[in-house]
């Protein structure tokens, strides 16, 4: 498996339209056409190819949170293909752990604060419960960056 430094150099050579820059986390900025990466992450090579997957699939904004989950899966499918090409094995548990952070995030956002049923998203930052019709706001979904959501507290204010 190549080192993260040599993998970054390879990516820059093969995809000259994409910028790769060190940051404190991994994400793809469509606006800047830039992949940010953190070389200290033990899964740096996998996550770099995942972000490259977003880049090659031209992922941008999403209207609904479930679309983000779909884009995350697609980026990993692309990362697996890139892994074969660049000799980076893609362990299933790394992929599943990463997708789980998004699934947990979505679950937290979509759970009704009144009755715990799963609500449906009715606007960028609003959900409505299909059981008790409570509406609640969630943090604005990121629109210009695809970020990995860590275990951030989710604010839910019934309105
Ligand atoms: Zn992603
Ligand atoms: Zn409810």
Question: Which percent bin holds the helix content?
Answer: 40-55%
Helix count equals 4
Low-confidence segments, given as residue ranges, are 148-157
Estimated share of beta-strand residues? 15-25%
Q: Give me the count of strands.
A: 8
Question: Gyration radius, to the nearest Å?
Answer: 17 Å
Strand order of the largest sheet: 1-3-2-7
Helix and strand element order: HEEEHHHEEEEE
Number of domains: 1
Short description:
This protein has 159 residues and is of the alpha+beta class. It has one domain. It is built from 4 helices and 8 strands.
Question: Key terms for this structure?
Answer:
159 residues, alpha+beta, four-stranded mixed beta sheet, 4 helices, disordered C terminus
Describe how the helices and strands are arranged.
Blueprint: H1 4-14, E1 19-22, E2 27-29, E3 34-37, H2 44-56, H3 65-86, H4 92-110, E4 119-123, E5 126-129, E6 135-137, E7 145-147, E8 157-158
Parallel strand pairs: 1-3
Antiparallel strand pairs: 2-3, 2-7, 4-5, 5-6, 6-8
Helix pairs in contact: 1-2, 2-3, 3-4
The structure holds zinc ion (2 copies).
């Amino acid at each position: 498996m190549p080192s993260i430094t040599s993998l970054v150099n390879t990516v820059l050579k093969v995809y000259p339209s994409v910028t790769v820059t060190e940051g404190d986390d991994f994400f793809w900025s469509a606006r800047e056409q830039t992949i940010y990466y953190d070389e200290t992450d033990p899964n740096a090579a996998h996550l770099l190819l995942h972000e490259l997957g977003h880049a090659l699939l031209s992922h941008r904004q999403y209207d609904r949170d479930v679309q983000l989950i779909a884009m995350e899966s697609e980026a990993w499918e692309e990362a697996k293909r890139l892994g074969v090409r660049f000799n980076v094995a893609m362990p299933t548990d790394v992929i599943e752990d990463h997708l789980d952070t998004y699934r947990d995030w979505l679950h937290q956002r979509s759970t009704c604060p009144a009755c715990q049923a799963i609500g449906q998203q009715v606007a960028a930052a609003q959900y409505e419960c299909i059981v008790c019709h409570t509406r609640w706001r969630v943090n604005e979904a990121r629109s210009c960056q695809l970020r990995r959501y860590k275990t951030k507290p989710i604010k839910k204010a019934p309105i």
